[in-house]
Design goal:
This protein is an alpha/beta fold. Helices cover 51% and strands 12% of the residues. It contains 8 helices and 5 strands, in the order E-H-E-H-H-H-E-H-E-H-H-E-H.
Length: 233
């Protein structure tokens, strides 16, 4: 299939900015498409929090539920049915986007993705939400197995190149003031551990000036495209 370029990194690393640029720049090699493969649950929560009148109450309620679910997962227990259904819905949404991405590649489009599913670090961003345990109700355990199978299938499609944008905590917090510092810290710590099934990874310091970040991204992609036999127009 056509080349697949994945851009990964914590919130505040500049994925959207780099992705916007690369999606335009890479068309010199041929038709291209861009797909977001993240869960985006944080975006949904922040959008609910901005609703008039009920936003603040709704956001606090959801945050309490999320903390309860995280406690259960850390204790190696499956969440209750309602949170499990929510996790499963996000997984179905992500799987549908992934299938769309594969369809674009089969049509011959070069694909640039914002984020990419991984199975190396369960519970981390872009990884399975259910813990790997059989403790819980039979229905929830079944949902968990379905989710892990979906992530294993998605992660089996190895990108041609992963651009890993690395950023320090202070820079990430400055760029994303509406994000919790401890959540960003966890993502930053996990980012270097992701291997994406042995895919070719190029690390880029995303705290440096944008022009340098983009130049390094372009150089890394150009090398891969040349190896695949693509010539820039």
């Amino acid at each position: 299939m056509a080349p697949l370029i994945a851009i990964i990194g914590t919130d505040g690393s500049g994925k959207s900015t780099v992705g916007d640029h690369i999606a335009r720049w890479i068309t010199r090699y041929g038709p291209a498409g861009r797909v977001h493969l993240g869960k985006q649950s944080g975006n949904v929560l922040r959008a609910l929090g901005r609703l008039p009148l009920i936003g603040g109450v709704t956001e606090r309620l959801i945050e309490r539920k999320v903390k309860d679910v995280n406690k259960q997962i850390k204790a190696d227990r499956q969440p209750k049915l309602l949170p499990a259904l929510v996790i499963s819905l996000f997984t179905l949404r992500r799987k549908r986007r992934f299938k769309r991405m594969l369809a674009l590649r089969r049509q011959g489009l070069i694909v640039v993705t914002d984020r990419f599913p991984q199975v190396e670090v369960p519970g981390a961003y872009d990884g399975p939400g259910f813990p790997e345990t059989s403790t819980g109700s039979p229905l929830v355990v079944r949902l968990a197995r379905h989710e892990h199978a979906a992530f294993a299938w998605m992660a089996s499609h190895r990108p041609d190149l992963v651009l890993r944008l690395n950023v320090d905590l202070d820079t990430a917090c400055r760029r994303k003031p509406d994000h919790r510092r401890e959540a960003l810290a966890r993502k930053i710590a996990v980012t270097p551990l992701l291997t994406f099934s042995g895919a070719r990874i190029v690390d880029i310091d995303a705290a440096q000036p944008l022009a340098q970040v983009l130049a390094q991204a372009e150089a890394a992609i150009a090398a891969v495209m040349e190896e695949r036999g693509y010539v820039a127009r």
